[in-house]
Design brief:
Blueprint lengths: L13 E9 L2 H5 L8 E8 L18 H8 L1 H4 L1 H7 L5 E7 L6 E3 L3 H8 L6 E8 L4 E6 L5 H10 L6 E5 L5 E4 L5 E3 L3 E8 L5 E4 L15 H7 L9 E2 L7 E7 L4 E7 L5 E2 L8 E14 L2 E7 L3 E4 L7 E3 L2 E7 L1
Antiparallel strand pairs: 1-2, 2-3, 3-10, 4-11, 5-8, 5-10, 6-7, 6-9, 8-12, 13-14, 14-20, 15-19, 16-17, 16-18, 16-19, 16-20
Length: about 325
């Protein structure tokens, strides 16, 4: 039997309809759709039960979970397998908001594993586009106490305890587990996070579902995981748009870089045996090339997973790529 050779993997995007969605995400991705409630496109998902499915090449139809079992460190990388086994540890998605998201918080790995048999949820946002007045909420605006939080909840003014930022293209926000946060309306952003869908709502502005019932809050869960300490500004300054690569942010769960490419040369992707790499084109169009695979066109709004076994890949074209490794 001929052994299947790994190649950069493209997945069918999972488009999610949400109460705060709109009609701008599909056009950004070049997808024709009449839906006016699309808020998320899950590009590469390792969330159990909602794993991405390959849509091109010899492995089309295979789920990401199946491929992790089949290929192990060839796909994931030695460092990733040593930490996570055959589990794919990240979720990368595009988010576009026509309304404010709920004020919420996520648990850390220990709490999530103990109570929900899940990974925790630390995440990073890269702002792609922002309408006038768009904002990001991230963290408290001073050290607070649990009793101050409870009082604000009772009075319906939790937002007065939180730090609000003007949203600007190119900005980066690293949101550790335990940090209260919210994405405001008018944002188009890339979210990189642990492969978890655990969210504890704190305030949802009294919104209701289609059946008229208010969306549930999760205050008891939230209280157990909130970090009440103020750490200073959450926004990481937008780096100057200069050709080449630079580190945007890193944490114990992932490392994210920005690579600005041009059509006049081939730009090497940061690859290693230790980890896979996920590349998302957020602006322009780029062609990925390598010795072990055919050229791949990657337009704005598209993502590709480069297995750890691929040692060399280059990008050509006037584009901005956001690249994440573990």
């Amino acid at each position: 039997m001929t052994k299947t050779v790994l190649y950069p993997l493209h997945f069918t995007p999972l488009l999610k309809s949400v109460i705060w969605g709109g009609d701008k995400l599909a056009p950004f991705k070049g997808i024709v759709s009449d839906r006016r409630d699309i808020g998320e496109s899950w590009e590469v998902s390792g969330v159990p039960g909602r794993e991405s499915v390959v849509d091109r090449g010899d492995l089309a139809g295979r789920s990401l979970g199946d491929l992790c079992q089949m290929f192990g460190s060839e796909l994931l990388g030695e460092r990733v397998v040593n930490r996570y086994g055959s589990r794919f540890p990240l979720l990368v998605k595009l988010i576009c908001t026509s309304e404010d998201l709920s004020i919420q918080v996520h648990p850390d790995d220990l709490t999530a594993a103990t109570e929900f048999d899940s990974l925790g949820k630390t995440e990073l946002w890269y702002i792609i586009k922002a309408e006038e007045g768009a904002r990001i909420i991230s963290g408290v605006n001073r050290d607070i106490t649990p009793s101050e939080f409870d009082q604000a909840v009772a009075e319906g003014n939790v937002i007065t305890l939180l730090e609000t930022h003007e949203s600007r293209p190119g900005d980066v926000f690293l949101v550790p587990a335990g940090r209260i946060h919210a994405i405001g309306r008018g944002n188009l952003l890339l979210e990189i996070q642990e492969a978890s869908d655990l969210t504890f709502r704190i305030d949802d502005y009294g919104r209701t579902e289609a059946d008229g019932r208010r969306r549930p809050l999760h205050l008891e869960h939230a209280r157990r995981v909130i970090d009440y300490k103020y750490y200073g500004g959450s926004r990481l300054a937008a780096p100057a748009p200069v050709a080449g690569s630079m580190l945007l942010a890193g944490c114990e769960h992932f490392k994210t870089l920005r690579l600005i490419t041009t059509a006049t040369r081939r730009w090497a992707l940061p690859l290693s045996r230790g980890s896979f790499a996920i590349a998302t084109c957020v602006e322009g169009n780029v062609t990925l090339s390598g010795d072990d695979f055919d050229d791949i066109a990657l337009p704005a709004g598209d993502s590709i997973l480069v297995p750890a076994a691929i040692r060399k890949a280059t990008a050509t074209g006037d584009a901005t790529l956001i690249i994440t490794t573990c």
